[in-house]
């Protein structure tokens, strides 16, 4: 019995379709990613970009498997800085026209207004609380884990030379009990911003940009009472020190926020690899209970150039001043000795 040629053609066509379908399914399976593929230093995109405020929807992965409390999840901070709704700077707390210097550190104002350096109730904490409603969808907001955390006291290297208010050459911060009390969006602490396991190994790694220009951003850690109006701060060149809550000081600069969050990674339903730049993957995330994320994100990563070593500059200047003083003292002693000898002669 002969098989009709058309039947053979149909069978061959059907076989080809099955093979192509299997190949397509295998290719799609190869492109399927999970949260296990995300690593520290990667960027996850979610949220609605807003050109005015500078929020671009790009979040830097600090820990891909644990929150900042050690629970399961992800710990993220925005890759770039965010300003107010109209793009202007943000303050930790508005306290009016009060300026801080080495000679007047704001002791009188702090005594009359206790709690100035508390993150709880600060302008920046209120701004963070309103962040999800402004920039995140309902599904994205539901994926944020409420965070409960107390910060311990921490001492970090400063200029390594004694200065007024920093006699040990260090920068010292007080503990902050229950500083995060169910917060979904918050700012980093000094301990987090200096944690090498999060990728913050040096000043360069902490530099962040506001619309393409390096800017400074506040941390939630209060300085010890030697500077009672200061909190932790990352300067535009990446150094972690302290700075007045209202940004009024001898060294004034633009101040913004770098929001952070803990993410329930089990609510991520899809991860799409948008690009890989210098070994870092940029992902686009979709979340449980929401539509697929098809938002277009800027896939560029900031390029950090040379950064200023302020601590090194201060130490060098200190050494130069000491040497000059020693030379002047030697010249003065020499002059006195000559004068005494001349009188005896």
Outline of the structure:
By secondary structure, this protein is α+β, with helices and mostly antiparallel strands. The chain is built from 7 helices and 16 strands.
List keywords for this structure.
345 residues, alpha+beta, 5-stranded mixed beta sheet, 16 strands, elongated
Q: Radius of gyration from the CA trace?
A: 28 Å
Could you list the spans in which at least 5 consecutive residues all have pLDDT below 50?
10-30, 310-324
Task: Give the proportion of residues in helices.
Answer: 25-40%
Roughly how many Å apart are the termini?
Answer: 141 Å
Kindly state the mean pLDDT as a whole number? 86
From the spread of the alpha carbons, the general shape counts as elongated
What would you call the quaternary organization? Answer: single chain
Count the beta strands.
16
Largest sheet: 7 strands, mixed
What is the H/E string?
HEEEHHHEEEEEHHEEEEEEEEH
> What is the spatial order of strands in the main beta sheet?
8-14-3-2-1-16-15
Note the total helix count.
7
The amount of beta strand, in percent, is 15-25%
Structural class computed from helices and strand pairing: alpha+beta
In total, the number of domains comes to 1
Question: Can you tell me about this structure?
Answer:
- The longest helix has 35 residues, at 310-344.
- The protein has helices spanning 5-30, 107-112, 123-135, 138-142, 190-193, 203-206, 310-344; strands at residues 43-45, 58-63, 74-78, 147-151, 154-157, 170-173, 176-183, 185-187, 208-210, 213-222, 230-234, 240-244, 255-256, 259-263, 268-277, 280-287.
- It starts with a helix and ends with a helix.
- It has one domain.
- Helices cover 27% and strands 25% of the residues.
- The protein is built from seven helices and 16 strands.
- It is of the alpha+beta class.
- The radius of gyration is 28 Å and the shape is elongated.
- The strands form four sheets. A seven-stranded mixed beta sheet has the order 8-14-3-2-1-16-15. Strands 9, 10, 11, 12 and 13 form a five-stranded mixed beta sheet that branches.
């Amino acid at each position: 019995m002969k098989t009709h040629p058309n039947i053979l053609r149909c069978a061959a066509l059907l076989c080809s379709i099955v093979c192509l379908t299997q190949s397509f399914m295998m290719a799609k399976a190869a492109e399927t990613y999970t949260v296990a593929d995300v690593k520290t230093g990667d960027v996850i995109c979610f949220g609605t970009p807003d050109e005015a405020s500078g929020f671009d929807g790009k979040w830097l992965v600090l820990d891909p498997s644990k929150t900042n409390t050690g629970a399961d999840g992800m710990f993220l901070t925005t890759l770039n800085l965010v300003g107010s709704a109209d793009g202007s700077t943000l303050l930790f707390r508005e306290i009016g026209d009060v300026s801080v210097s080495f000679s007047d550190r704001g002791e009188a104002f702090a005594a009359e207004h206790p709690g100035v350096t508390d993150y709880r109730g600060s302008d920046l904490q209120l701004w963070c609380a309103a962040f999800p409603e402004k920039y995140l969808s309902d599904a994205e907001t539901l994926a944020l884990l409420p965070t409960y955390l107390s910060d311990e006291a921490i001492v970090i290297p400063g200029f390594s030379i004694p200065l007024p208010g920093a006699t040990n050459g260090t920068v010292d911060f007080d503990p902050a009990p229950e500083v995060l009390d169910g917060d979904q969006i918050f700012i980093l602490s000094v301990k987090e911003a200096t944690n090498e396991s999060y990728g913050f190994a040096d000043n360069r790694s902490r530099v962040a940009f506001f619309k393409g220009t390096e800017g400074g951003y506040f941390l939630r850690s209060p300085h010890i009472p030697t500077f009672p109006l200061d909190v932790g701060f990352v300067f535009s060149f990446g150094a972690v020190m302290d700075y007045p809550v209202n940004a009024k000081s001898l060294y004034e600069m633009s101040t913004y926020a770098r929001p952070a969050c803990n993410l329930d990674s089990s609510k991520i339903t899809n991860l799409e690899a948008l690009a890989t730049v210098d070994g870092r993957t940029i992902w686009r995330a979709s979340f449980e209970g929401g539509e697929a994320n098809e938002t277009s994100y800027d896939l560029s990563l900031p390029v950090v150039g040379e950064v200023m070593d302020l601590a090194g500059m201060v130490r060098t200047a200190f050494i130069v001043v000491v040497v000059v003083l020693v030379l002047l003292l030697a010249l003065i002693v020499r002059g006195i000795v000559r004068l005494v000898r001349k009188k005896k002669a």
